[in-house]
Design goal:
The chain is α/β, with parallel strands linked by helices. Helices cover about 25% and strands about 25% of the residues. One of its GO terms (molecular function) is phosphatase activity.
Length: about 210
């Protein structure tokens, strides 16, 4: 691999970061096709909160977990496998509170055949307005990037919570980082985030608060 190729790769990445993603996708006729449907009446005036799923809200495994909160059967190449899911402490109350102040979107790099049934069970308060899966990610150097510029929402009013910095590489100033969660029953991060996010829902431009360079 020559130096020119690497330089071009790096400059392309810097360009995407500087311009904040690739922008709203367009169909064959050139019409804008944002990933999200127009904002609904109940969420008018609310900011958009984009939540990751795995290792942020839940942890899932094909290996049996004794204390699993629920089990989801997933068919892979004709064979049904059980996926054992445990919920991050505080997730139910976190989702309930966030659903009162934000337009809540779950954006996961997982496949819908796994994530959809998980969300059907997880979203007990029915606050998730939109679900986006792997096919909606932007493949950047083998990473599944969640390009907020494609959502069809004001970037200044969009927040992403994700345990993987690679997921929000195009929008670091919209991100609230969270640690990867697997099974720590004493974890309090979701609960601790609630007051901060509540305050953030009232600011004019979330990037002024979340500026990664500060």
């Amino acid at each position: 691999m020559d130096d020119d190729y690497l330089d071009n790769e790096h400059s392309e990445e810097q360009r995407l970061i500087m311009q904040g993603g690739v922008g709203i996708p367009k169909d064959a006729d050139g019409n804008p096709c944002p990933l999200l449907a127009p904002i609904g009446a109940p969420d008018t005036g609310r900011k958009c909160l984009v939540l990751d799923l795995d290792e942020t809200l839940v942890h899932s495994s094909f290996k049996m977990i004794q204390n699993a909160d629920f089990i989801v059967p997933v068919e892979i190449e004709g064979t049904v496998h059980n996926v054992y899911v445990i919920k991050r402490p505080g997730v139910d109350e976190f989702m309930r509170q966030m659903g009162q102040i934000f337009e809540v979107v779950v954006f996961t790099a997982s496949l819908s055949k796994y994530a959809d049934p998980v969300l059907d069970i997880l979203d007990i308060h029915q606050v998730v307005r939109h679900r986006l899966f792997r096919e909606s990610c932007y493949n950047h150097k083998g990473n599944y990037v969640k390009d907020l510029s494609q959502l069809g929402r004001e970037i200044a009013e969009t927040i992403i919570i994700d345990n993987s910095p690679a997921s929000y590489i195009f929008h670091p100033n919209n991100a609230v980082p969270i640690s990867s969660w697997f099974n720590d029953i004493h974890d309090t991060e979701l609960t601790d985030l609630c007051p901060f996010l509540s305050d953030l829902s009232d600011v004019h431009d979330v990037r002024a608060v979340l500026d990664a360079g500060l």
